[in-house]
Amino acid sequence: MVVILRQTPPQRVSVRVRRRALVMGLPGLTMVLVLVGCSARTGPSWKVFPLSRRSPHDGLAVVSQPDGFGLHLFLETDTSDPERCEPRWFPDAARLFNGNGTAPFSAGLAPRDEFFAVVRREDVLAALRTELKALCEQRAPQALWQWTDPPTQASEVIPVLLPAYEGEDLLTDPAEEQQREEALLREG
After folding, report:
1. Which of 23, 111, 145, 179 has the most C-beta neighbours closer than 10 Å?
2. How far is it, in rounded angstroms, from Cα 123 to Cα 150?
3. Is residue 177 domain-resident?
4. Which residues of 153-187 are buried (b: 16+ CB within 10 A; e: fewer)?
5. Within 10 A of 89 (CB to CB), how many other CB atoms are there?
6. Which residue, among 63, 23, 18, has the nearest Cα to 43 in the 3D structure?
7. What is the pLDDT of residues 21-65, one digit of tens each?
């Protein structure tokens, strides 16, 4: 006589596996939730801190990527009017490296679009105001501090006009110099 079993052994194994999965479900789910909750942040950290170039308050680091990359903003003041001190904006920021480490540094240039995106953030603007005001107080303590908003797009960038060189600062024209030399040689 042959007995036909209602469940074959492979089905019994799968039932056992299903039962174990149900029993381990709550702790397993808890473990997954804990691990997901403790996972590293994948978005930008947006850390902002002073990072001097040559003197206090003349640089600001903005870490905009999770791996410590970002921008090193060079801060300058316009003190052409002795009564007033205001920011002078340079949208050509340096690339920041190791911004999350112990020794951040900068090199090269970052795209201007990154500068425009960074200066639209309120936390960056607040840090810029603080650092630039301190820089103005350091460079022109008698002048009145006046904030001007940074450019947020390429069309708002105003090229900086530097003072003209004086005659003694300029090199002579090489062709003129050669003619003078030849004239001196002919005379002598």
Report:
1. 145
2. 14
3. no
4. eeeebeeeeeeeeeeeeeeeeeeeeeeeeeeeeee
5. 22
6. 63
7. 566 665 655 565 555 556 555 555 589 999 998 989 999 999 998
Instruction: Count structural domains, the chain.
Output: 2
For residue 138, the model assigns a pLDDT of: 94
Half-sphere exposure of 40 (CA within 13 A, CB side): 5
Domain limits for position 30: 10-39
Which tokens hold the place of 152?
A: 């947020």
Structure tokens at 38: 């403790």
* Contact between residue 72 and residue 106 where contact means Cβ atoms under 8 Å apart: yes
Q: In terms of domains, do 142 and 111 share one?
A: yes
Residues with Cβ within 8 Å of residue 188, at least 6 apart in sequence: none
The answer to whether residues 65 and 124 belong to one domain is: yes
Q: Are residues 73 and 122 in the same domain?
A: yes
pTM of the model: 0.63
The verdict on 72 and 114 lying in the same domain is yes
53 and 144, same structural domain?
yes
Pinpoint the alpha helices (H) of the chain. 9-37, 112-118, 122-139, 174-187
Token duo for residue 57: 């308050």
Q: Is residue 3 part of a domain?
A: no
Q: Which residues of the chain have pLDDT under 70?
A: 1-45, 162-169, 188
Q: Are residues 138 and 104 in the same domain?
A: yes
What's the gap between Cα 96 and its chain centre? Answer: 6
Report the distance separating Cα 114 and Cα 148, nearest Å: 20
